[in-house]
From TrEMBL:
It comes from Qiania dongpingensis. Residues 57-125, 228-300 form the Cupin type-2 domain. CDD domains: cupin_RmlC-like. It comes from the Bacteria. SUPFAM superfamilies: RmlC-like cupins. This is Cupin domain-containing protein.
Length: 305
């Protein structure tokens, strides 16, 4: 397998030319990260890394954590494939995330994950627009002592987050698309807070009216949109979503399938098995098709709707 740093912004498109492409789970590029010390690494699988976003999976064994803290020059969103996982932020938030929950971490928010369970945990992450700066790893990384935690030695020098963390308990609506769970720009201002989006708190909407598909946002802002599609079974012929076409690059990750992606203008279709992905360059019309007898579910990662 190539080094993670060698494939950044060019996976699976080595020459940078992007086209609609099925990426089977066997094709994901695996690596330890960080690569220099397996004792503190997560097991990471890159699905897509282009000039517009990064999509991947990381795994932590029972009792494990990755070290050091992580940071990105873009927003990061999580979908927990297998929890529970505890995500610690540099400013002293500890999010307990169960399978199916989501997390929004604005740009420049330091973070680190722990697995306190008796099984491997797995996280699908989406970072946009940029996953890494010029320095990999970053030139400055805070030590544990420079973060906030129970009886931390520097707690009094670090920001009090109680007035920073926004109350996100209001019921969501269509007008929240583009600023869910909070406004992206405001969330990126120092000191950054992170936001858990539990399965029951995802922003629900309906994609299409004649052939409705459930659309559930974990996050939606000026950098990207991340959430899940649920397409029920049944119809005259297979159940199909209505055609959509995004202004920015996107990827679809199959949770429950198989799901067929039909490229409506190109008359080409692809079948995604669970954990396969599909890359959709900006401006590619597509629909999802369900030939199964139960709902199918896919995560969407879209840079501009
Ligand atoms: Fe990260």
């Amino acid at each position: 397998m190539p080094k993670l740093t060698d494939i950044l912004t060019k996976f699976p498109f080595a020459d940078g030319r992007k086209y609609p492409r099925l990426i089977r789970r066997e094709e994901y590029s695996s690596a330890l990260y960080p690569p220099d010390n397996a004792f503190t690494s997560d097991n990471t699988f890159t699905i897509v890394s282009t000039d517009t976003f990064m999509l991947g999976i990381y795994e932590l064994g029972p009792g494990g954590a990755f070290d050091p803290l992580d940071i990105h020059p873009g927003d990061e969103f999580y979908y927990i494939l297998q929890g529970p996982i505890v995500q610690r932020s540099g400013n002293g938030q500890f999010a307990y995330l169960e399978t199916g929950d989501g997390l929004f971490m604005p740009q420049e928010a330091w973070h680190k994950a722990h697995n306190f369970s008796d099984q491997k945990v797995r996280v699908l992450y989406f970072i946009t627009p940029k996953a890494w700066g010029e320095d990999i790893p970053p030139a400055y990384i805070p030590t544990d002592a420079e973060t906030k935690f129970y009886k931390g030695p520097n707690n009094d020098k670090l920001p009090d987050m109680r007035s920073v963390i926004q109350n996100v308990s209001r019921q969501g609506c269509t007008d929240d698309i583009g600023s869910w769970p909070v406004d992206g720009k405001e969330a990126r201002a120092y000191p950054q807070a992170v936001y858990t989006v539990r399965d029951c708190d995802k922003l629900n909407n309906i994609h299409g009216t004649k052939h409705p598909m459930l659309m559930r946002f974990i996050g939606s802002n000026d950098y990207g949109h991340f959430g899940e599609f649920i397409l029920p079974p049944g119809g005259y012929g297979p159940r199909c979503s209505e055609e959509d076409c995004h202004g920015g690059d996107a990827a679809i990750f199959c949770i429950d399938g198989p799901i067929t992606i039909n490229l409506t203008q190109m008359q080409e279709s692809f079948q995604l098995r669970p954990e396969d992905s599909f890359f959709l360059p900006a401006g590619t019309p597509y629909q999802l098709v369900n030939f199964e007898s139960q709902p199918v579910k896919a995560v969407f990662a879209v840079t501009a709707l």
